[in-house]
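Can't paste images in this forum, so I'm doing it all in text. The chain is below; anyone willing to post the predicted structure tokens underneath?
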Amino acid sequence: MIKRVFIGLIFIILTMVATALGLDRWISYRTAPYIYDDVASLPHRQVGVVLGTAKYYRTGVINQYYLYRIQGALNAYNSGKVNYLLLSGDNAQQSYNEPVTMRRDLIKAGVDPADIVLDYAGFRTLDSIVRTRKVFDTNDFIIITQRFHCERALYIALNLGIQAQCYAVPSPKNMLSVRFREVGARLGALADLYLMKREPRFLGPLVPIPAVHDVPEDAQSYPAVTPEQLLELEEKRLK
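Text version of the structure:
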């Protein structure tokens, strides 16, 4: 009896793993036609959406994923493939501000500040993609991130009727653990799309691109959704 139960559990686990890997491969296959590794072959679009990540790890070591995304944004911008860069990331804490960090590094590298738009409510990939469409009024754009992230972001976009392509920047070596976590992230994205039908945490007023952004050098934030609006929306959500 115990042996049968054990064999049954093993079978269930193997079935779940096979299903997860199969869905992972399906997302990769489904999005492959919309991913470009070479900037020269990248189609021109008005907006390039740079998906945020921390510049440094907790140990203080610089994040190579961040560096590759910034360089990819510069490549797309300097080659004329995009006219504006929408920097979408997390601004949950004053001391942790992905969009402002990316903005400062891109300006140092020569990008015109007038060509940079900030999205402070890109808490998740789904939020970044949907907000690009619904808040920034852009339905045909280039996503800039690593290939594995491109695939998940594009799958979200395609299933929501959003037109997008992706410029896949290089990934650091030894990314096995990151790729393993990505399988779980893709299952979460599928649940968001098909089971929970989630929307972004915040939307806010329409801010069409190009938008005029007056961002002081010492500013912590200048969100499309103002702090007052974020508070109001959060209070409504909790009621």
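Residues 220-224 have pLDDT under 50 and may be disordered. The longest helix spans residues 2-31.
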